[in-house]
Amino acid sequence: MKETNTKGGSFNTGFVFGKKNYTFMFIGLGVIALGFILMSGGGSEDPNEFNEAIYNFQRIRLAPALVLIGFAIEVYAILLNPNKK
Predict the structure, then answer these.
(1) How far apart are CA 32 and CA 72, in angstroms?
(2) 8 A C-beta contact, residue 76 and residue 24
(3) 3-state DSSP assignment of residue 42
């Protein structure tokens, strides 16, 4: 993958991350997306009527925790060394 240029130096034409990094990145994106999907909804059709469903466990605890876990997976994916076995 390394090629030599005319100035005598070398440059790498490969990807910055390995397959393992990208796998963890897509998993992290999926967890973040799931967290935002679980956070949505809970509104009421009638603006004069309050819906208590907006304060349930799914929207207050579970969804933000999934988003934070997804961001942690993304950080891990960036810091992961793909060449280490």
Answers:
(1) 10
(2) yes
(3) coil
